[in-house]
Write a structure and sequence with these properties.
The chain is built from 14 helices and 14 strands. By secondary structure, it is an alpha+beta fold. It folds into 4 domains: about 1-145, Resolvase, N-terminal catalytic domain (Rossmann fold, 3-Layer(aba) Sandwich); about 160-295, Hect, E3 ligase catalytic domain fold (Alpha-Beta Complex); about 320-370, no CATH class; about 375-435. The strands form 6 sheets. Strands 3-4-5 form a 3-stranded mixed β-sheet. Strand 12 and strand 13 form a beta hairpin. Helix 4 (about 80-95) runs antiparallel to helix 6 and helix 7 (about 175-185) packs across helix 11. The longest helix has about 50 residues, at about 375-420. The structure holds zinc ion. Zinc ion (ZN) binds near residues 313, 314, 316 and 346.
């Protein structure tokens, strides 16, 4: 039995409830005198992904041949992504000799029926439903953000969630002074590493540490150290002047859950949604200093040759790192080294990056100059012109040939498919022959 419930089910939640699904499945098993092995449940996991713990457990049992049948209440319980759902029903289950039943959709792969034939269309409908719901949920979410409701699951360090009003922030007096100290130090010229040291030396727990333990300062603290990335993000966070900025990042779509950054103008900013801890002038001053100094959260520029250098010896990508060339000197230089050398599996190289880059540019310029000379260029061009034309012509003929082949293969497939539909060709023969093609 496979059971799934998620927020896409919205107001249908009652009829889709875990216990309701379970009842239907148990009744079906009893009525059909099936041998019940195991129940797999995914509570609160969307049907657009197949990365679900219960589902994975079931696949493992299929791989281990512990089960030979899968039952769900309906097709959408299995999944709402029609490509992947189709893969399981039409490819994976048959290959693993799994009989699949979706009770209320009347799908049963054990029998050949018209219900099974329209399965792909049902899968598409389920997919569209998920897309629609995802849109609706997102727009409700955005609307709330526009109203200045604070929708993050945890409040920023310095604040806590209002005890009775939903999605509202109140000042956390336990750590308010820490925030004030940080902004005070930074606006008075202390650098971020100095502030990080101050906080760690005075045994303040990092925001994460505070969130987990509820302790602000601990003489015997181990771990939960502050770092400059956290600090710089705090210094930039408008939450401390009473504004709520949300929608800072987003997922690509309801199917592709990769998180991307949202451009500043697309972010949702509402002023004065809660009590400020930091004065707007102080905050403004801090932003100016941050901009001048450049923050530690991002690299200011990329090296010209980053990612383009490979080790001659071990063929790995080379690293570009800052290194002091002696203990006494304070200035650090950029060096190219082989990352394999740390484990003593390759040579350390230690090539001065700046000199190397200059040399590469010199070589590239030399080559360019050679061909920029019109006479040399023309002679090289003339010499190779006919050769090039030949190659193009040969490729053209090849492409035409391949196109023709593809056309014929498709044609045959179409014919075979029609034969199968008409019943001229048996299912097994169809599969056998189409594999050959
Ligand atoms: Zn190497």
């Amino acid at each position: 039995m496979y059971i799934r419930l998620s927020r896409e089910d919205g107001d249908k939640k009652e009829s889709e409830s875990i216990s309701n699904q379970r009842n239907i499945l148990q009744r079906y098993i009893k009525e059909n005198k099936l041998n019940f092995i195991k129940e797999y449940v995914d509570d609160g996991v969307s049907g657009t992904t197949f990365d679900r713990p219960g589902f994975k457990e079931m696949i493992q049992d299929i791989e281990d041949q512990n089960i030979n049948m899968v039952i769900t209440k309906d097709l959408s319980r299995l999944g709402r992504d029609y490509i992947k759902t189709g893969f399981y029903i039409e490819d994976y289950f048959p290959k693993n000799n799994i009989r699949y039943v979706a009770i209320t959709d009347g799908i049963d792969t054990y029998f050949d029926s018209t219900n099974n034939d329209i399965t792909p269309f049902k899968a598409i409908m389920n997919d569209m439903y998920a897309k629609d719901i995802s849109k609706k949920i997102r727009s409700v979410y955005k609307e709330k953000q526009k109203q200045g409701e604070y929708l993050c699951s945890t409040a920023a360090y310095g604040y806590k969630k209002h005890p009775s009003i939903k999605n509202k922030l109140v000042v956390d007096n336990k750590v308010k002074s820490v925030i004030e100290k940080i902004f005070d130090m930074y606006s008075n010229g202390h650098g971020s590493s100095e502030i990080v040291n101050y906080l760690n030396n005075n045994k303040y727990l990092s925001p994460l540490g505070y969130r987990k333990t509820g302790i602000v300062q601990d003489e015997n603290k181990t771990g939960y150290n502050w770092n400059e990335v956290t600090l710089c993000n705090m210094l930039k966070n408008e939450v401390y002047i009473g504004n709520t900025v949300q929608n800072k990042n987003s997922v690509i779509s309801y199917k592709v859950k990769k998180v991307i950054n949202v451009e500043k103008k697309e972010q949702i900013r509402v002023d004065n949604t809660h009590e400020a801890i930091i004065d707007k002038d102080v905050f403004g001053k801090v932003q100016c200093i941050l901009e001048k100094r450049g923050t530690n959260t991002k690299l200011k520029y990329d090296y010209l040759l980053r990612g383009l250098l490979y080790c001659y010896h071990c063929k790995r990508k080379l690293q570009i790192v800052f290194k002091k060339n002696s203990k006494r000197s304070s200035k650090a230089y950029l060096y190219i080294t082989c990352s394999n050398s740390k484990a003593r599996r390759c040579y350390p190289l230690n090539i001065n990056y700046e000199k190397f880059e200059k040399y590469i540019i010199y070589i590239v310029k030399k080559i360019c100059r050679k061909y920029a000379d019109k006479e040399i260029f023309t002679s090289v061009y003339e010499k190779n012109k006919n050769k090039t034309l030949d190659i193009i012509e040969r490729h053209k003929i090849k492409i035409e040939h391949i196109d023709k082949e593809i056309f014929e293969i498709n044609n045959n497939l179409d014919k075979m498919y029609m034969d199968k539909l008409k019943g001229v060709l048996q299912e097994q023969d169809y599969i056998r022959v189409s594999r050959k093609v």
